[in-house]
């Protein structure tokens, strides 16, 4: 019997992608548009992510520019950036908004590392939950005599290999972000 690990692979891949998107907004020393993309802006009687109402570009290593598609949203975008709890200051100039990232203090780097580690552990837990679900399914199939005990352990090895690859990918992403924060 061949077990279909597609659901497990989707959950592991989804967990990795979620971790990447979660940490993209962690501010490092370098300007990155992902830092601002999900900031909520009150526009058109609803709350929208900034990426839906403006173009976000990197001007230099520590400056982002935000160019709204509708100039009437300049003030709402400025307020949204200031209210984002990212410690950023938005400066309006003509038809765009400049956001300069201040240098990271050692204290702030420590806070970011702590947050990064929490998000890594959260992602690992989600992958482990997916593993536990699949392991339970495999054990149920063995109890129902759909597969042999040998087959059960062979499937467990395959499952563990997929989980190991997912965890390694998380660790790789974590290490890259850690280097960015420490720079």
Give a short summary of the structure.
With about 180 residues, the protein is of the alpha+beta class. It has helices spanning about 5-25, 35, 75-80, 105-145, 150-180, and strands spanning about 40-45, 45-50, 55-60, 65-70, 90-95, 95-100. The chain folds into 2 domains: about 5-25 and about 105-180, Orthogonal Bundle (Topoisomerase I, Chain A, domain 4), CATH 1.10.132.20; about 30-100, Gyrase A, domain 2.
Describe the fold and architecture.
The protein has 183 residues and is an alpha+beta fold. The chain folds into two domains: 6-23 and 105-182, Ribosome-recycling factor (Topoisomerase I, Chain A, domain 4, Orthogonal Bundle), CATH 1.10.132; 30-100, Gyrase A, domain 2. Helix content is 57%, strand content 17%. It contains five helices and six strands, in the order ααββββαββαα. It has helices at 6-24, 34-37, 74-82, 106-143, 149-182; strands at 40-43, 46-49, 54-60, 63-68, 89-93, 96-100. The strands form two sheets. Strands 3-4-6-5 form a four-stranded antiparallel β-sheet, covered by helices on one side. A two-stranded antiparallel ribbon has the order 1-2. Strand 5 and strand 6 (96-100) form a beta hairpin. Helix 1 (6-24) runs antiparallel to helix 4 and helix 1 packs parallel to helix 5 (149-182). The longest helix is centred in the last third of the chain and has 38 residues, at 106-143. It is elongated, with a radius of gyration of 22 Å. The chain starts with 5 loop residues before the first helix and ends with a helix. 22% of the residues are buried. The model has no long low-confidence stretch (mean pLDDT 88).
């Amino acid at each position: 019997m061949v077990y279909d690990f597609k659901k497990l692979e989707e959950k592991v891949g989804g967990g990795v992608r979620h971790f990447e998107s979660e940490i993209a907004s962690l501010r490092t020393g370098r300007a990155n548009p992902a830092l601002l993309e999900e900031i909520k802006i009150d526009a058109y009687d609803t709350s929208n992510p900034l990426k839906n109402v403006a173009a976000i570009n990197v001007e230099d290593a520590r400056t982002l520019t935000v160019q709204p598609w509708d100039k009437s949203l300049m003030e709402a975008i400025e307020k949204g950036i200031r209210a984002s709890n990212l410690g950023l200051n938005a400066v309006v100039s003509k038809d765009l908004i400049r956001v300069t990232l201040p240098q990271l203090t050692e204290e702030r780097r420590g806070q970011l590392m702590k947050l990064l580690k929490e998000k890594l552990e959260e992602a690992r837990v989600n992958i482990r939950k997916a593993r536990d679900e699949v392991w339970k399914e495999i054990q149920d199939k063995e109890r129902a005599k759909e597969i042999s005990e040998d087959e059960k352990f062979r499937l467990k090895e395959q499952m563990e290999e997929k989980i190991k690859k997912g965890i390694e990918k998380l660790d790789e992403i974590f290490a890259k972000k850690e280097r960015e924060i420490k720079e």
